[in-house]
Amino acid sequence: MRIVVLGSAAGGGFPQWNSNAPACRRARRGDRAARARTQASLAISITGKRWYLLNAAPDLAAQIAAAPVLWPQDGVRSSPIAGVVLTGGDVDAIAGLLTLRERHAFTVYATSEVQAVLASNPIFRVLSPDCVERRALGLDEWTTLTPPDDPDGDLSVRGFAVPGKVALWLEPDGRDPGLVENGNTIGLEIAERKSGAHFFFVPGCAALTERVLERLRGAPLVFFDGTLWCDDEMIRLGVGSKTGKRMGHLCMSGEAGVVAAFRDLGIARKVFIHINNTNPVLLEDSAERAEVEAAGWTVADDGMELAL
Ligand code: MLT
Ligand code: MN
Prior knowledge:
9 helices, 17% helix
């Protein structure tokens, strides 16, 4: 299985367009230790013929331009993109669907909750139903992405609920909607049944419950929510008033953080993704970056490729 990191940053990207914080200034200047990143998304394929996107970021056009595997290969109009699997209804997960208009046939896989969000937004009708199929992902059920008996191999996905919040733009009047654990925010397990290769993609998770941790125990590869270094870093930096908890995201550091919680899970490869522009691990020369790497984590980078 081939995995390409199309984007590794949280909503807003790095640098975020309206941030003049020191790290964003470094990224904007082209500082090599503060590499720019687009919003989180992966592309996966078995043989490289058909590709499936995990989330469609607002940066998708630039991500496709930067990833030759996603360029058209056949005839005068085509795309190797065969499907998009969504983990939620946030802007950074769905806005790229609008980039995929132009009458290319593909399938959008999402829970019934997220499909309802798309259905209630007429702008997504730009993906004409006679070319773009919308398929509901049942929770804890395997769905095969590749066509039956595809000679290029089989790829399946299983979505599972993780603690999260409704999409930020659907919050009632800016009030905290509280945590839910249903189809609004899901993690994905992707598997090639034939070879047994599999991995997890959990770009947003609001709490480290036993259920989440047990599911990931012993996994060969996990991409996990790396939004913040500490819960109140946006407040401390003076760039926002929200904590990670309020946003429905985790932080890496501290006894209650992701690094500590994953220490004994026996996961072979741990990769942080969906990293906010305020998180110091984005800076390759930071003490925080050294600390997560010493704990066995990789900080995802745009363009990074992995094989399973
Ligand atoms: C999130 O991950 O909380 C969202 O992407 C926030 C946003 O929509 O900017
Ligand atoms: Mn996000």
